[in-house]
Write a structure and sequence with these properties.
By secondary structure, the protein is of the alpha/beta class. It contains 11 helices and 11 strands. The C terminus is likely disordered.
Length: 340
């Protein structure tokens, strides 16, 4: 049962988080010269092996803590607003709590994406103390199958623990597409999330090769029903996914490499988890000139992109700074400013 003290702390932190988010949104509208969101990988290893996932292995060692600190400090120096820790499974990193504290010390909002398997009451309380501000778990089905073990049956007790102890925001993401056998499971998962006091979203999952197929009629019905819960949704930018659900391209300006950074376990900056290798520049040497170049660079993968977090941050700049194909990394900064 949720204690009065936990409820009070949760509400106070929510108010503080929302105020910070509003300030960061205002700053994002006023200035384009800083990242809004960075995903950082502290460990590529995962305890699961979901067949659609191309973002894990079963052998990688955690990134040393000092190196994680250096990367987070660099993101802070670039003016990054939000840092989300992902993986692999980030809870496998032995010093994750101090990594979270380092994010907060740099004045950035700290988030975590986890499969939830390692969450117990004490671990959740440690995340509270570290300053974690939001957490997301994707649950793929009600019962585990050969595609995914991230099931409500396995994770429901973890969700109950989060409802009882977490002082941070919790979002539960359910999915359709990508070989999920029972799309109606998404509704069951979403209803359970709302029942426990969490926000609920639905995503369109890619297959094992990173591609997305249009939703069939039943998947689309479930997708539309969950979208009708919009007031409970963690994100309200849905036009991108609506087109993806119909197999239609999106016409937008992807700001990956500038407003959004994906930093892999090797410390390289990539456009996103599905476009690793571009630009492939070490974060340690990444500059505002690199960001300005990528801000103005047209991304060939954008029309059929499925990475919703990149869609969300790019919304801030949808009306300004038309993009151009592959601006050279040797383009002088003065010319980049003129193009902008």
């Amino acid at each position: 049962m949720l204690s009065a003290l936990t409820t009070l702390r949760r509400r106070a932190k929510a108010v503080h988080r929302n105020l910070r988010g509003a300030r960061m949104a205002a700053r994002a509208l006023a200035s384009t010269d800083h990242p809004l969101l960075a995903h950082i990988i502290p460990v590529r290893r995962c305890n699961l092996s979901c067949t659609y996932c191309n973002e894990f292995d079963d052998f990688s060692k955690p990134v040393p803590t000092d190196e994680m600190f250096a990367r987070i400090d660099k993101l802070g120096s670039l003016g990054t607003a939000v840092v989300t820790i992902s993986g692999g499974e980030p809870l496998l990193h032995p010093d994750l709590d101090n990594v979270i504290r380092r994010i907060r010390t740099n004045g950035m909002i700290a988030g975590l994406i986890t499969n939830g398997y390692f969450l117990v009451a004490d671990r959740i309380k440690q995340l509270n103390r570290s300053g974690l501000e939001w957490l997301q778990i994707s649950i793929d089905n009600v019962n585990p199958d050969e595609v995914s073990k991230k099931s409500l049956k396995v994770l429901d007790k973890k969700l109950q623990l989060l409802a009882e102890h977490a002082e941070f925001h919790v979002n539960i993401n359910s999915v359709v597409g990508g070989g999920i056998a029972n799309p109606q499971d998404a509704l069951t998962i979403g209803r359970r999330a709302v029942e426990l006091g969490f926000s609920s979203t639905i995503g369109i999952i890619h297959d094992g090769s990173g591609q997305v197929q249009p939703l069939n009629n039943e998947e689309r019905r479930i997708y539309d029903e969950m979208k009708s819960w919009e007031k409970r949704s963690f994100t309200r930018v849905n036009a991108f996914q609506d087109n993806i659900a119909q197999g239609l391209p999106n016409d937008w300006r992807c700001r990956a490499g500038a407003r959004y950074l994906y930093i892999c376990e090797d410390g390289l900056v990539h456009y996103c988890s599905q476009q690793r290798g571009y630009p492939g520049v070490p974060l340690a040497t990444y500059t505002h000139d690199d960001m300005r170049r990528e801000y103005l660079t047209e991304k060939g993968c954008a029309p059929h992109c499925t990475v919703s977090c990149v869609h969300q941050v790019s919304i801030f700049d949808s009306w300004r700074a038309p993009q151009h194909p592959a601006i050279s990394s040797a383009t002088p900064a003065a010319e980049l400013v003129q193009i902008k």
